[in-house]
Design goal:
Layout (H helix, E strand, L loop, with lengths): L2 H24 L4 H33 L12 H5 L4
Amino acid sequence: MTDESVAARIERLVTEEHELLQQEQRDRTDTERLDHDHERLQDVRVELDRCWDLLRQRRALRDAGGDPDAAEVRDANVVENYRQ
């Protein structure tokens, strides 16, 4: 996976995130659809975090003289539980 392919995935996910936020507004009176929108939005946000993590790993490896292809997609639980 290249930086460009990760960045393209991020762009697609951001577009979906924005669409879901708009959909949540339209579905605010339909609790079943709203729940589905919210679940998908959470999934998209986790996937975005994982993509950004991978892109940061690739850049860090490259900056340190390493092979960016050695970066690995980390488990969602790892990425979502980072300390800030």
